[in-house]
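Tutorial sheet, problem 5. The two components below are modelled jointly, 971 residues in total.
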Amino acid sequence: MNKLVRTKWRELALLVLVPFLTSGCGERYLIMNAAGPVAQIEQRLIYTTIVLVTIVVVPVIILLAVIVSRYRDTPHNKAPYNPEWSESKILEIVWWGIPIVIIGIIGTFTVRDTFRLTKPPTAETPLTIQVTSLNWKWLFQYPGEKIATVNYVEIPTNRPVEFVLTSDAPMNSFWVPQLGGQEYTMPGMAMRLWLQADKPGVYYGHGANFSGQGYAHMSFNVIATSSTGFHQWAQKVKSTAPPLTAVGYKNLTTKQDIVGKQEFSSFPPGMFEADIRINGGMYMKHKLTEATD
Amino acid sequence: MPAALTNFATHFFVLGDPLIYGADASIIIVSIAILFVLTYYKKWGWLWREWLTTVDHKKIGIMYLIAALLMFFRGGVDAILMRTQLVWPGMHFLQSEHYNQIFTTHGTIMILFMAMPFIFAMFNIAVPLQIGARDVAFPYLNAISFWMFFFGAMLLNISFVIGGSPDAGWVSYPPLAGPEYSLGPGENFYLLALQISGIGSMGTGINFFVTILKMRAPGMTMMRVPLFTWSALAASILIILAFPALTAALALLLFDRLAGAHFFTMLAGGNPMMYVNLFWVWGHPEVYIVVLPAFGVFSEVVATFSRKRTFGYASMVASMMAIVVLSYLVWVHHFFTMGAGPGVNSFFALASMIIGIPTGVKVFNWLFTMYRGRIRMTAPMLWTVGFIPNFAIGGATGVMLAVAPADYQYHNSYFLIAHFHQVLIGGVVYGMIAGMYYWWPKMFGHMLDERWARHAFWWFNIGFYVCFVPQYLLGFMGMTRRIYVYPANMGWNTLNLVSTVGAYMMGLGFIFLVVDVVYSVFRGQRDKTGDPWDGRTLEWSLPSPAPHYNFARIPVVTSRDAWWIMKEARRKDTTDVSTTPGVDSVSVTKSKQNAPQTLAQAGKLKPIHMPKDSGRPFILSLCFFLFGWGLVFEWYWLAIIGLLGVLTTLVLRSFETDTSYHIPVEEIEKTEAAYGRA
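Model answer (structure tokens):
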């Protein structure tokens, strides 16, 4: 019996520990180390729900431990035994009621933030970056700067970035935990994801949806620098890197291999839109125009 | 010619991996051993007469149980292989391709070929006995269901050594699972195996739905039905309404792959999102299909081993039915990040959280069933008590995942992996193991050993936390699922190592479970009474194992917990419960007058009408297997032969009139006398 009670306490301790461990005490907990307003909204929401669900979980486990130790079938147990007692309106109202209230609170926050995240996080002029997931690499195109990179993306800080996502391979999912949650990339579709970095740094990104043999290697870095740093970098790529030709793009898509970082001083105009169209975007015209207007 | 033959062989057999050669060798050795034993001990006739042709629900239940445990082993070995690969960042234990196949088959097997047969085993073993019936409504269909499941499972399992396993994940999303990116027969194996076993599941759903509604003993109103049977009814409703969506999704994808259709390719006007929707319209109810029966088992176990009436019976039934309805309104939470608008995401987020309310209510009801009871910590109770903290935490993380914006972060991360393993293992596996220990004496006439049961439970339970708590943390650290290697500088090493240790501990727990079974077959305490746990429901009124006609005389039910009330009435020191508020008091006094004491006291026996055994369900399913095999390799001649076989068996059945017989009274008397019940 004691063994059982002890185990319950161990579980309880673990449960209390989880929020502490994840409360940003280690910077390795990427989700809890938000580096921008989008990730911050999500992080706050996560904290709120952890607190609220703990209000239910901890008493349940304590109650279990108490009941199991008190009502054991031992010869000298003096606790009351009431084998026919099986109804209590008040108790049932309590445990239908409390979860309803808690779910009500969580639900309210959820709806508010779901709508909030569909808009740019701040009022600054956004930067658009077009992202294509390939087998097994990431291609980033900058329609403003007319440059392109593979397997890393450079962004300015304090400015919302509108990532427009598609895939020229099986579906994948674009995820940079420290900047905010993910969104899928799908062939023939263009979807948007708003992210923003508040401080300079190198942020870990990875494809989150399984896409085949080389999927485990589909990581990329998001490098956030100041606005001037970003422009200098763009200029440097513009002047030093080779251009990405149609043939070059075809090589990227058809060669199913894993490559390192690459950069290109230009890309064929309209390549991203054409890519969506030939992958089935012609059947979803409204989606295409919406994403690229 | 030899060149063509070599070419065929290299594509037909999976070559080049020592692990698979090992599997080849062990399959051949085990097969030869089985053939040898059956031939040497002249058991072929016995196997055919007693098992392959049986329509007895109790035997079918036992076959489901054996299959579920074997598949649990297979899926568990897959899990151990994966955890071994992940123990260190740059492990070279499995190749990417092999790893992908293993996680795909792990998921598929655990959900469809472990959890499903496990719940069907419990349905078959307990439901007819609990409602006082002699069989299920459609015994012949029941046999077909089992063999369809069995051959479906075999079709998937054989892919490991022949043709190659599927490797597009257990969800098998196109375009990855489509003809363009998944060459070879692997995906075909997945589609046809699920399709064939799905027919079996559908049959079981219909069978138990009708059985529970139509075959209850006189007096057993719906509000007197034991909670496990209620959970079986709820799961059956879900099966009937959910499985057609899976059937459609799999069939359309098969057309895409084999016939060049474009249901799910954007390029020709199809849409992969359609597959994702169809899959999860089945997939989320499926989660409740497997977990509701576990809730049913816990309800029985808690009441029996607390020696107390189930607390809040009406609210247990209401919450189960609420879950049935709500489970159809939550499927989009599997893809909040696939571009649905904020309105849609909000709706499905709220629906997903709300389902936590009835589920939470059940936990409180179990707690208060124990409250003021007398708790005996036997093996079934141990798994039940172990389940509650598991499910409290798993449910809490479920609510966390339902918060759509938070899910943008958790989706496809190890946080998700930890959550669904916590609820599926902590719910379904704990529940089914509790049920197995609980009904084992009823199935086999002997108990499972408690000492080994404790070893199994503690290794498995502690290993479970060691395995999955680190995975929650890995999720917060940004580790994504389904990667076979990971960067060394992310700080994921230690937690992965710990998690793997936990997986091995769970493996050890499973081994102890098997040891328990083997030990108890020879040394386990025999159950002479038929009621070793002092049970409350009708199955415990029968001898163990129950005679094949179950009840010599159909019992008359006057109250909930019918057997308990009958026993109360028979006990010398019956306390008059009519003074306790809220109890069906009249029924106790009634049963005191009516409860049959012995066969002689209860009037004359009548001949019992029973269905005849038939080999046709086995042959029918075998033909389905050939049909599926033919389609997997696109050998259409074989598919046509298989299909003709299916049609022939169906036509032959429709001309069969002599499908049942009567057990004469003398035989019943003799059987009952042998049990000491004359």
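Marking note: The CA atoms of residues 47 and 333 of chain B lie 47 Å apart. Full credit if you identified this.
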